[in-house]
Amino acid sequence: DTPKGFHDEL
Amino acid sequence: MNIFRLAGDMTHLASVLVLLLKIHTIKSCAGVSLRTQELYAIVFATRYLDIFTSFVSVYNTFMKLVFLGSSFSIVWYMRYHKAVHRTYDREQDTFRHWFLVLPCLVLALLIHEKFTFLEVLWTFSLYLEAVAILPQLVLLQRTRNIDNLTGQYIFLLGGYRGLYILNWIYRYFTEPHFVHWITWIAGLVQTLLYADFFYYYFLRFIGGRGVE
Known about the structure:
The complex is a heterodimer.
Chain A: no helix or strand
Chain B: H1 3-25, H2 34-47, H3 58-80, H4 82-86, H5 98-110, H6 117-131, H7 134-142, H8 148-174, H9 181-192, H10 195-207
């Protein structure tokens, strides 16, 4: 999934 | 990605398309609050700043561009397009929405997950989105009954965050360490603000009347 701390939701 | 989040994003996309359809085809924004649209443009502008720095997926980037493009074009239509602007109800759309921006910014500076520029603005966008619908709901109560498209727009806009709550519950039980209290509380407040509208909206379906 995405790098830690980044938001993967809209 | 899970079915709840996909349904939420599609519902959100549908709300934007319904509003664009109304404004672009019948050149009318009657019953639509420009102030809510301006707040939403700020919400997306401050939430999607990471569009250039962090790539999540093609879907994610594409949807961010759609929400950014549509929210700003709706504001442009309602402000500057002659025919559409004429149908804008300036006298009734008077909620002091700028009074919402500062408290959300202060709150984001106080309560956030990480104290970085992007993270504080992202948190600000969450708080702002939770209250962004207020000018629209106030306008709704002033203009007695609204047309179906506007009613459907608000219904879909309220529904999308409700589906996101199901997504957060699902992710909480399926992903270890998936805990985001700030997002959850902001999303819950946002959805609860629609409770009153949902009540009348469903009455309309049952009674077959316009949204009073």
